[in-house]
Design a protein that fits this description.
The N terminus is likely disordered. The chain has two domains: 59 residues, SH3 type barrels (Roll); 194 residues, Tandem AAA-ATPase domain (Rossmann fold), CATH 3.40.50.10810. Helix 4 packs across helix 5. It has 299 residues and is α/β, with parallel strands linked by helices. It has eleven helices and eleven strands. The longest helix has 19 residues. The radius of gyration is 23 Å and the shape is elongated.
């Protein structure tokens, strides 16, 4: 049997034995004979792709024995196994992979931004503009958790006002299984001592960080951030980053210029803007905010 014909036997979800391990089939391409697998024992490990035409790769169907009623065990052990299996399936094969790693129960409406993000092709550009108290932090973090777990984003940055840095850090750590660094003037010395070499950048070394946007926009920190920014950025209180009308608001203008240069230099990045007041009655400022998501809005 040729590799292409053999691969047709391996529909997603089937169990297989190869290289002395048990695997679950993720995908099979009959045109190339390529079968993508993920190990059952440790789903966090990288999977494998077997090219059946090489002949050297031996892959065979496998199964697990049915439960034996004479070895029922105890109720606690059975419930623990059930919970572990449920979480494993969530993480490996469910439509929303990030749900297996969060420690909160989102309300139904809080899934809407996530579903809108997943409907986009290419980079995700999203404005979350729900009312105060609705849970915009959870909505944005759900998007981040899902993009990272799907491999669509590798690193995360949250830019917010200084007084919200601690809150964002706590939410990401306690509810969404991230391990964020806090980037503020008081923490920079400790973070820089962690770097592998003196010329390394904190923004490049951290896989997840929450930073004060006013600290990042400072003259000393702006260029390192623009050079080494993650591929997924969340901006909270984004209305403070819109282009101000006239010559007012020097700090707000600097925040707008920071984000404008970021999206210009990183057109393929994911960007999520979060605000409860996207429109303050100034059409020009509102259009500039939308222009960060797509330049046609600020034409």
């Amino acid at each position: 049997m040729t590799g292409r014909a053999a691969s047709e036997r391996w529909s997603p979800g089937r169990l297989a034995s190869a290289r002395g391990r048990s695997w679950i089939v993720l995908a099979a391409d009959p045109t190339t004979g390529l079968v993508e697998l993920r190990p059952l024992a440790d789903p966090e490990q990288a999977g494998a792709a077997l090219l059946l035409d090489l002949r050297r790769e031996r892959i065979a169907p496998t199964s697990f024995p049915l439960p034996d009623p004479r070895q029922a065990g105890d109720v606690t052990g059975a419930l623990t196994l059930f919970d572990a299996s449920r979480l494993l399936l969530r993480d490996a094969a469910a439509p929303l992979r990030g749900l297996g790693r969060i420690a909160c129960t989102p309300r139904p409406y809080q899934y809407v931004p996530l579903l809108l993000a997943l409907r986009q092709s290419g980079s995700v550009r999203l404005l979350i503009a729900d009312d105060v108290g609705v849970g915009k932090t959870i909505e944005a973090a759900l998007v981040a958790r899902e993009l990272v777990d799907r491999g669509l984003a590798r690193r995360l940055a949250v830019l917010c006002p200084a007084h919200l840095v601690e809150q964002w850090t706590r939410e990401l750590e306690e509810k969404f299984a991230f391990r964020p660094d806090r980037i503020q003037p008081a923490t920079m010395a400790a973070l820089e001592r962690r770097l592998p070499r003196p010329d390394a950048s904190v923004f490049a070394h951290s896989d997840c960080f929450v930073a004060s946007i006013d600290f990042v926009k400072s003259e000393r920190r702006r260029e390192p951030f623009l050079r080494d920014a993650p591929d997924l950025v969340i901006v909270d209180e984004a209305h403070g980053c819109a282009r101000p009308a006239g010559a007012r608001g020097r700090g707000q203008q600097q925040r707008f210029e920071l984000l404008s240069r970021l999206v210009e230099r990183r057109p393929g990045m994911h960007l999520v803007l979060v605000t409860a007041t996207p429109h303050a009655g100034i059409e020009e400022s509102f259009r500039s905010l939308l222009g960060l998501l797509h330049p046609a809005f600020d034409g």
